[in-house]
Amino acid sequence: MSFLSISRLEKYVLRESVLPFILGFSLVTFLFVIDFLFDYLDLLLTKGVPPLVVLELFLLALGWITALSFPCGVLVAALMTFGRLAQDNEITAMRGLGVNMARVLRGPLIAGAVMGIGLGLFNNYVLPETNHRFANLTYSIHRKSPAARIEPGVFIQDFENYSLLVKEIDDKSGEMTDVTIYDYTEKKSPTTILAQKGQMKYIDGGATLRLDLYDGEVHAVPGEATENKYRRLAFDQQTLFLHNAGAVLKRQDRRSRGEREMNIPAMEAAIAKLVTQKEEKITRIKDKLKTAGVDDPNGYWNAAHPEGSAKVFGAAAALLGKKQKARSDTTADGRRVSEIVQMEEMDLKSIERRIDKYQVEIHKKFSIPAACVVFILLGGPLGIRMRKGGFANMAIAVGFFLLYYLMLIGGEQLADRGLFSPALAMWMPNIVLGAIGIYLTFSITGLGPGRGMR
C-alpha cells in the first residue's frame, strides 16, 4: 500500500476523532466549572461582586481548567473513535487489507505529541499569567467589604452619614415598606425621612445604593438654640444615593508569585536561590555543632542526615542532645546551642519543602502534556478491544482520567510534604497508565507478548 493511501487513512482517523475530542473536552470542562462554582459562588454572592468581575474571574479560571481538560479530551477521542471503528468492522477491514494497527495509531500519536507540545507551551507561558491574575483578583475580592445588606427590622449603619430602617423588603424586587432614614449630613441634629414605600437598587458596581422613596415626609429638627423652626416637608417621590465605599472592589496586585504563577525559568531561579540559602543554613548548623564541642561537624551532620538533607527533622539536634547528655553537659550554653540547631533544622526543612513545591510544578508542566500521548496509547487499543463507540466509552474515559487526576493530586501532596520524589510523584500517573497502554498496544499490533490476544 502506498504512502499516500496510509496518509489518507491517518487523516480519516484524525477527522473521526474531532467530534469525540470536543465532547470529551467539553464534558470535563463542565465538571470543573461546576466544581469552581461550588468553591467560589458563596464568596462572590456574599461580597456583592459585579457581574463583569465574576465573568472575568471565570474566564481566568478557564486557564487551569483547560490545562486539565485537554488531555481528557484526547483520551475520550481515542476511546470513542477506535471503539466506533471496531464496532463498524472498519478495523477488521483494515486488517484484511494488511494494515498493521501500529500504522493506524501513528497519526493519532503524532497528533497527540503535537497537542502535548502546544499544551506544554501553554502551561509554561500562558497559564502562569492567568493564574497570577486569578490570584490577584480573588485576593482583591477577599479584601472587599460585603455590600450592605438591607434586613427588615434592623438598623443599617453601613452608609456614611446615614442610618436606615425598613419594616419589610422583597429581596427579589427590592421593594420596601415603612422606610425610616436618619440623615447626619449636617453634623447637628439628624434629619428624619419617612416613606410608606420605596425601591432599592445597587448601582456603580455595588458602590452606591439608590433609594426611590414614595409618599413620605422629611422632618428637620433645629440644631442650634437660635433655630426654633421645626421643618416638615411632604413629598410624593424622592431619590437618595447612599454611598458605601467598602463595597467598591479595589484591585490590588500582589508583588510575590506562587509556584503556579511562575514559568520554568522563574522557578529554576527561585530554586537556585533556595539552594544557596540551604547551603548557608547547613554551614551555620555545622558551625553551631563545632561551637558545642563536636570535633567533626561534617561527619556528625552526615551521620544525622545520610542523604544530605533535613528530611529527618531534628536529627542533628537529637544527636547533639545525646552527646551533651553523655558528657553531662547540662549548662545553659549547651542547651541553648542544641535549641538553636533544632531551630536551624526547622528552617532548613522549610526551605527543602519550598524547593520540592517548585520541582513538583516544573515536572507537572511536562507530565500533563505528556499524558496526551499516554492517553492515545491507552485509549486507542482499549477502544479496539471493547468494540464500542458510544457514550459508554466516554464514561470509561472519564473514569480513567479521574484515576489519573487522583494519582496526580495525591502524588503532589506527598511530594509537597517531602514524602515522595517530586519527579516520581508527577510522572507516576503517566508511568502506570502508559505501561497499561503499551501492553494493550502490543496486544493489538502483534509486536509484543500479547500478540495472540484478540
From TrEMBL:
<keyword id="KW-1133">Transmembrane helix</keyword>
<dbReference type="GO" id="GO:0043190">
    <property type="term" value="C:ATP-binding cassette (ABC) transporter complex"/>
</dbReference>
<keyword id="KW-0472">Membrane</keyword>
<keyword id="KW-1003">Cell membrane</keyword>
<feature type="transmembrane region" description="Helical">
    <location>
        <begin position="104"/>
        <end position="127"/>
    </location>
</feature>
<keyword id="KW-0812">Transmembrane</keyword>
<feature type="transmembrane region" description="Helical">
    <location>
        <begin position="12"/>
        <end position="38"/>
    </location>
</feature>
<feature type="transmembrane region" description="Helical">
    <location>
        <begin position="58"/>
        <end position="83"/>
    </location>
</feature>
<dbReference type="Pfam" id="PF03739">
    <property type="entry name" value="LptF_LptG"/>
</dbReference>
<feature type="transmembrane region" description="Helical">
    <location>
        <begin position="391"/>
        <end position="407"/>
    </location>
</feature>
<dbReference type="GO" id="GO:0015920">
    <property type="term" value="P:lipopolysaccharide transport"/>
</dbReference>
<dbReference type="InterPro" id="IPR005495">
    <property type="entry name" value="LptG/LptF_permease"/>
</dbReference>
<feature type="transmembrane region" description="Helical">
    <location>
        <begin position="427"/>
        <end position="448"/>
    </location>
</feature>
<feature type="transmembrane region" description="Helical">
    <location>
        <begin position="366"/>
        <end position="384"/>
    </location>
</feature>
<protein>
    <submittedName>
        <fullName>YjgP/YjgQ family permease</fullName>
    </submittedName>
</protein>
